[in-house]
Amino acid sequence: MPSAVYIVGRGVISALGDDLSGNRESLLQSQAGIKAITRLNTRYSEILPAAEVPHSNETLAAMADMPVTTTRTALLSMIAAKEAFDSFLLPDKLNYKVGFISANTVGGMDKTEDFMKEFAVDTSKGKLHDVIHHDCGAATELVAEKLGITEVVTTISTACSSAANAMIYAARLIRNGYLDWAIAGGTDALSRFTINGFNSLMILDNELCRPFDDTRKGLNLGEGAGYVVLASEKMVALLAQQPSVKLSGFANANDAYHQTASSPEGRGNFDTMSGALAEAGLQPSDIDYINLHGTGTANNDSSEGIAISRLFGTDLPYLSSTKTYTGHTLAACGGIEAIYATLAIEEGVVFPNLRFQHQMKELEFAPQTNLLEGKEIRHVLSNSFGFGGNCTSLIFSKVK
Amino acid sequence: MELYINGIGAISPQKTFDNSVFLDEVLSYSTNKMMCVDPDYSLFFDGRAIRRMSRILKFGIAAAMIAIDDAGKPELDAISTGTGFGCLEDSEIFLRNIVADNEGVVSPTPFIQSTHNTVSGQIALLLKCQKANNTFSHKGFSFESALLDARLNALDYPTQQNFLVGSSDEISTASYAIMSRMNIFRKEPCDNLAQLASSGKGVIAGEGAAYVVLGKASTENTYGRFVDVKMISNPKDEATIEKAIHAFLALHELSLKDVDIVISGLCGDESRDTLLKYCNENVYTEQSIIGFKHLCGEYMTASSFAVWLGAKMLKTQQVPESVVLRNTARTPKTILIHNAYKTSHSLILLKQ
Amino acid sequence: MQELINTLKQQIVEQLNLKHIKPEEIGDDQPLFVDGLGLDSIDALELIVLLQQKYGIKLANPEEGPKVFHTVRALAEFITANQKK
User: Fold this and answer.
1) pLDDT lower than 50: segments of chain B
2) What percent of chain A has a predicted confidence (pLDDT) above 70?
3) For A104-119, how does the pLDDT look when each residue is reduced to its tens digit (9 = 90+)?
4) Is the same domain home to A142 and A85?
5) Is the pTM of this model over 0.95?
6) What is the DSSP letter of B2?
7) Which domain holds residue C64?
8) What is the value of ipTM here, to two decimals?
9) B134 with A156: CB under 8 angstroms?
10) Range of the domain at A48
11) Which of B51, B106, B108 faces C19 most closely, judged by CB atoms?
């Protein structure tokens, strides 16, 4: 079995809070962050609820200690990555081979779409400064530079599975000696591009989403960033405080069914969940909690649910979708939800699947609807399934 | 771990889609933009599929298909791709549609195809490949990250045998206009074939897709071996890059004298080329220096074209005149690709 | 009705970029999805856009799509029944 990689730091910003402690508080209070759009300038602000980080770019720039012209994707990334970096308590931590493996789908789109308003009318118009950080890698480079990370810096962009894949890549680099430790995860900012895009696919709910509910109508978009610090056993031996959670298994597979829809039987989902279990040397019955991808679309929840039924049979762990709190944060969700998985393990809690009422007809199970505390959560399975058939599952385990 | 290059495919501003020839004819361009020479796409896609496909989807997927076909259609264990800017044309169309109607009713197709992993996802769909699939989008390291991904898969999974790796990037109407405003390109008229010799300000815009099939076992069609890749972010000076080159080679028990050919990522822009020029003149003193960006132009994933070129040289044992910048009559046994996209330097080691 | 059917065929070919098909080759009663013309779920979304942009009809529930878009004739009948006067 391949060597495990340990979680030795975390950083997160979402509609639930500006940091780990804020997110944790909202989760425990069953306080969702999905509401009417107030910050983004969009025609849909009164029509489509979303989970915005409740700060202007000016405020985020001050928090990130970055210029106010920085893209929102980069600002969110910086805030969460810095928290993760600071939370890793190793002396002279930059004196090792360090990586920053980030992920996003929108890149600098929040600025590009402003640019396009003028450019579309006259190609000599539009502020060039708004598009210099359009590409996905730009946000990653800005953050890596500020943190002083150089050994391996890269960006993954596989739609909703991006951050999860970033964590896998980082874990692999560590296992194979390319890195000693790495910050890995993802970020995405809300933009008109994504709101209009998802709306054109008719998979947005104009009310608060209800993942895994039989009458669900779609997803709500969110934004945020989430990063974990991963380290090798060698690094962990140098720490004063030992980590309590490790990344014990993972798998990446492709559904190869349709560009945007999942196969009805959720074969990609099945492959990644069973693949992650095999890698971790675990049985389905070892999993205590599944953090569902659970977006709230008719298609995703059905495919994911059926794949879970096929794999777990009737012996099911607790399950919930924390997107009922954070909305769908696209590339960031794998990172944010990984952090929530670690909280579940550390604190022995299961966060509820909010607003659930009707069990899905095709499933023989329902998600957890109220907060559970005082549970023994040893292993958590976290799913992230995206467009392009990109499926990924991660398993987090308690360190004995 | 060394992996055999068992199949290659490239669609570029040169006639590279036909594997049976090797730069027999080199195309010259007098503009600062070189776009792909297309194969007959109806050979790759049926009418229903092709109707939606943007240029990057067509040439990206077709290049992958050429490589897979070339390799004898092995069962793939993973697909790793890179793209610097992703599907620009579709992104632009969708953005324009949103603006034109002030976020009114918009067609979903360009949005669906704008996501960076579209090429990778479509390849998986066409091949019905349900194995691991990754897309990297990190400027001048997008392709290199994908190469490393394949290497990591090969290292971590003993039972996995064959890996598809490649990249694609396109010039879109908007991106060309925007980068022109940023003075990134050479002022016209240009001569791509003289671009590298005539050091000046600005690059020639390029685009293209190149894929390789890497395998743990060699086949009759094997071109050579991919040994390893190293990415060096913003090397601060000459000493830093030199040290990195020596360290990379030493990791594989090689020193500079073992390297026959250096494929250099010179782009003809004086400010971008300084470190590469330094290396060519002071570090790679005994090697033949090959250029490639006069053929494919400059773009974030141009290094995949260099891999295609290196693989061809290893197999044919020919070094086309059209790519030689300095000839020291070394036969192609060990090739080091040293690319730079702005300050992102990468080293890719290939062997016979 | 026939005039609307013929116009729709033209618009369908344009909206869905069916370069390889001539509008007159589409049968009035030919199934558009799965069999027949073999359109897919993305095409269904595009037809919803066409309905809204060209005929001002908003299909709020994509699940009604298969019925409404079953054939060109079915689509023409739906439009006739629902178009704002």
Assistant:
1) none
2) 100
3) 999 999 999 999 999 9
4) yes
5) yes
6) -
7) 2-82
8) 0.98
9) yes
10) 5-236
11) B51
Instruction: Give the integer Cα–Cα distance in Å for A50 and A328.
Output: 9
Subunit contact C45:A201, Cβ cutoff 8 A: yes
Looking at residue C44, which CATH number applies to its domain?
Answer: 1.10.1200.10
Chain B residues within an 8 Å CB radius of A174: none
Same domain, A223 and A270: no
Query: Which structure tokens are listed for B82?
Result: 């890179």
Residue that finishes a domain, picked among A236, A270, A285: A236
Domain tally, chain A: 2
- For chain A, residues with pLDDT lower than 70 are 1
Query: A195 and A260 share a domain?
Result: no
Q: Do C42 and B48 touch (CB under 8 A)?
A: no
**Interchain CB contacts (distance < 8 Å): B and C:** 28
Predicted local distance difference test score (pLDDT) of residue A400: 84
Distances (CA, A) of B295 to B25, B37, B196, B328: 11, 12, 10, 21
Nearest CA in chain C to A206: C60
Domains and CATH numbers, chain B: 3-215 (3.40.47.10), 228-351 (3.40.47.10)
Residues A196, A48 share a domain: yes
* Amino acid at site A393: S
Residue whose token pair is 């298609």: A299
Domain limit, last residue, from A236, A253, A281: A236
Cβ contact B152–A173 (<8 Å): yes
Please judge whether C62 and A202 are an interchain contact, meaning their C-beta atoms are less than 8 angstroms apart.
yes
Q: Is A201 on the interface with C (CB under 8 A)?
A: yes
Joined together, the tokens standing for residue B338 give 């040293």
Give the CATH number of the domain where residue A372 resides.
3.40.47.10
* Enzyme catalytic residues of A: 160, 293, 328
Q: Which of A98, A78, A110 is nearest to A11 (CA)?
A: A78
Candidate from C18, C20, C49 with C-beta closest to B105 = C49
